[in-house]
Amino acid sequence: xxxxxxxxxxxxxxxxxxxxxxxxxxxxxxxxxxxxxxxxxxxxxxxxxxxxxxxxxxxxxxxxxxxxxxxxxxxxxxxxxxxxxxxxxxxxxxxxxxxxxxxxxxxxxxxxxxxxxxxxxxxxxxxxxxxxxxxxxxxxxxxxxxxxxxxxxxxxxxxxxxxxxxxxxxxxxxxxxxxxxxxxxxxxxxxxxxxxxxxxxxxxxxxxxxxxxxxxxxxxxxxxxxxxxxxxxxxx
Length: 236
Description:
The chain is built from 7 helices and 11 strands. The protein is α/β, with parallel strands linked by helices. It has a single domain, classed as Glutaconate Coenzyme A-transferase (3-Layer(aba) Sandwich).
């Protein structure tokens, strides 16, 4: 019997090692795995390369991971957004690296990595600084830039519901990056609000099949990043 349940967030992230590439879901609170990120802070893995949509808010979640000096490089689309102060300051000080990737390109690079596609061409970023040093080709009289698919050692993802086999159902915008990150990581770790018995999910509603998931931890009352930021909370 396949049972992918982990007893705690700490147990779920225990294998994340120094120097790992980690994809972290997000696109709003629906997809931000706050408890898994905080467990990773407690775990202490360092020199991480993090692939995600933005750099977090306030002093919790992803921003706290960065503030704790555990991230050496970010690949993201929005390095600065509302309530984002930690990353911009460290970047100005030269203490963290950044690879800026347009949002659609980021999603497609992750999807391509999960699908086994090593590279693809896109018109996005042609004629901009983001195209510098990249291979370019012309198709049907239009210029394109080559981008590489992205793979990761680990993915930290938040879903709404799962069964013990790791089949997942998402909440709203968590579906934007969660499913493709699950496919693109060697080890996928998921926090969910609810765990049901095998057969308890409608097969027509399952977005990520359990074959792409390695560990599932139940967090019935996940923290809301916006509320933590509003309260001025810090982690740890």
